[in-house]
Amino acid sequence: MTRPVKRKKALPKREAQFEIKPIPKIGLKRREQQRSIDTRTTIICAALAEFAEKGFEAASIRCIAQRTGLQHPLITYHYRTKDILWRAVAEHLFAEIKRKTPPVNSTLSARDYVRERLRNLFYFTVDYQDFHQFMLRENRPNNPRLSWLIERFLRPALRDILPKIEEAQRTGHLPPSDPILVHYMLIGITSALSSLGSEIKEIARIEPDAPDVVGAYWELIDMTVFGRKACRD
After folding, report:
1. CB-hemisphere CA count at 13 Å for 128?
2. pLDDT digits over 141-199, tens only?
3. What letter does residue 129 receive in the DSSP assignment?
4. Could you tell me the pTM of the whole model?
5. 134 and 51 in contact (C-beta within 8 Å)?
């Protein structure tokens, strides 16, 4: 008698080893955010050059767009008016200065605090050579933008630095004069390479932003103002 053939049970179908997942929207969103940040940075840098060269009144968003290669509507999408863009430039500059400034409650001595703050400002002006010209364009009487700069940034910075200058004066590390005058003297010293760079280059054939020139000028400030000895190779 023939035995019945046993049929093998059908094996279950193997499930796919890899699940196809949709592209995460988070990564796409981050890329869009980074692109927006990059665009804003490009606009800010071009606007700084425009305002420094021409001043607020003569500057135009159309010329800023030409500097960036972006379309005019894209500029106004991020910054609706010229005044908003100008303030954004100022905010960006002073945020960078603050980021590099030692805190007021630093353990540095008064002289070293003033020195470190001045050194950071000096190297900031090397990186942002249009900064002083941007500020000087607004330095005239009855200018609402100057008043805004003073109340928003300059007066708070002065409140932080004056006690340190006064303490350094008491210990004989800074000259005994009105501390506000000392403060502005120091600012004037730091601005020479950036504010007079074209003149220095034309008359002396010195590249004011060359690393060796920048280093030599800071060493000169260090020796003259803070009594540091010259570095010897």
Report:
1. 24
2. 999 999 999 999 999 999 999 999 999 999 999 999 999 999 999 999 999 998 898 99
3. T
4. 0.81
5. yes
- Which residue in 97, 120, 122 sits closest to 214, CA to CA? 122
How many residues make up the chain in this entry?
233
* Dihedral pair phi/psi, residue 225, rounded to 5°: -90, -40
Q: Which of 197, 198, 173, 199 is nearest to 186 (CA)?
A: 173
Q: At residue 21, what are phi and psi to the nearest 5 degrees?
A: -105, 150
Q: In the 8-state DSSP scheme, what is residue 54?
A: H
Contacts of residue 122, Cβ cutoff 8 Å, sequence gap at least 6: 190, 217, 218, 221
Identity of the residue numbered 75:
I
Which domains are seen in the chain, by residue range?
Answer: 29-86 (1.10.10.60), 100-233 (1.10.357)
Helix H or strand E segment including 29: helix 25-58
- Fill in the amino acid letter for 167: E
* Structure-block tokens of residue 145: 């933008």
CA separation for the pair 178, 169 (Å, rounded): 10
> Would you state the pLDDT for residue 179?
97
Between 8 and 51, residue with greater pLDDT: 51
Percent over 90 (pLDDT), the chain: 75
